From TrEMBL:
Record domain Semialdehyde dehydrogenase NAD-binding: where: 3-95
Coiled-coil features, chain-numbered ranges: none
Gene3D superfamilies named among the record's database cross-references: NAD(P)-binding Rossmann-like Domain
Organism name: Serratia grimesii
Superkingdom field: Bacteria
Protein name per Swiss-Prot or TrEMBL: Semialdehyde dehydrogenase NAD-binding domain-containing protein
PANTHER family, per the entry: OXIDOREDUCTASE HTATIP2
């Protein structure tokens, strides 16, 4: 039985994961701070506020597992600084909050191509985020790196709508992956044995579920 802390519950992967967590008998409570209220559920504790960073600092409920599904794009964020704040600062602070509340396992949605030395802002920020999480010295850290995500976004991204058909045809880790498969992977990893750092590339997400 586990108490879960979850950030990013309104996103593409987050919505799928929240649904799975609510249905899973191993999960007794879900603490999920958001800017807009989530539909009520018996397991759900949903602090709401415009400032997610402030919400994180106020959390006191003890938890066992942290899920972070935060993510945006440079275009959506409006500036390099805003993008870095969401995809780096808030992710790191979410993990630190979970650690403060007693969590032993942190699971984070990163991205294909995450690389601290990348010349691309998106990939470099994801790489820096992963490095900072490693430096938190979690007993267990799971990093999932999906390729393009498939699913219905609340705010569709034009570029993804145009390129998604192409990404479904690409081989290996470049092939697009369904958000529900990423969410299922996160859930299964959370309740499987293990320790240390584990990185799952996008092709592992396809293979992972073909075996189930």
């Amino acid at each position: 039985m586990a108490r879960v802390f979850m950030v990013g519950a309104t996103g593409l992967v987050g919505r799928e994961l929240l649904r799975l967590l609510q249905a899973d008998p191993q999960v007794t409570a879900i603490v999920a701070p958001t800017r807009k209220p989530l539909p009520a559920h018996g397991k759900l504790i949903n602090p709401v506020g415009d400032d997610l960073f402030a919400l994180l600092t106020k959390q006191e409920q003890p938890v066992d597992i942290v899920f972070c599904c935060l993510g945006t794009t440079r275009r959506e964020a409006g500036s390099d600084a805003n993008f870095h704040y969401v995809d780096y600062t808030l992710v790191i602070e979410s993990a630190l909050t979970g650690r403060r509340l007693g969590a032993q396992h942190c699971l984070v949605v990163s991205a294909l191509g995450a690389n601290i030395r990348s010349t691309f802002l998106y990939n470099r920020t994801k790489g820096e985020m992963e490095q900072a999480l490693r430096e938190q010295n979690w007993p267990r850290l799971t990093l999932v790196r999906p390729s393009m995500l498939l699913g219905e976004r609340s705010s569709p991204r034009l570029l993804e709508r145009i390129t998604a058909p192409l990404f479904t045809l690409l081989p290996g880790k470049w092939r697009a992956v369904a958000a529900k498969d990423v969410a299922q992977t996160l859930l299964e990893q959370a309740f499987s044995p293990g320790s240390g750092v584990k990185v799952l590339e996008s092709d592992r997400l396809h293979c992972f579920h073909s075996a189930h």
